[in-house]
Write a structure and sequence with these properties.
binds FE2/S2 (inorganic) cluster; two-stranded antiparallel sheet; globular; Ribosomal Protein L9, domain 1
């Protein structure tokens, strides 16, 4: 599988029991609309709620030790 074939926008890859990895052209904003400089071209967005660096993943999801049922893909 190709990591990215989209040259126009971001590609978001969901990792099971982990973050959403965002690659490509994206803009990250806070709840007020202010741009957040992530300081890197690829970011991991927390979706477990445990990160101390929200909206970015800090690896805390690994402490949960749970595995959720993977959604069906097409
Ligand atoms: S997904 Fe990594 S800390 Fe939440």
């Amino acid at each position: 599988m190709s990591e990215s074939t989209n040259t126009e926008g971001a590609v978001i890859r969901a990792y099971q029991d982990g973050p959403l990895l965002v690659r490509g052209a994206f803009e990250l904003r806070d709840e007020t609309g202010a741009v957040i400089d992530p300081g890197r071209a690829t970011i991991a967005l927390c979706r477990c709620g445990r990160s101390a660096l929200k909206p970015l993943c800090d690896g805390s999801h690994a402490l949960a030790g749970k595995r959720r049922k993977r959604p069906t893909t097409k």
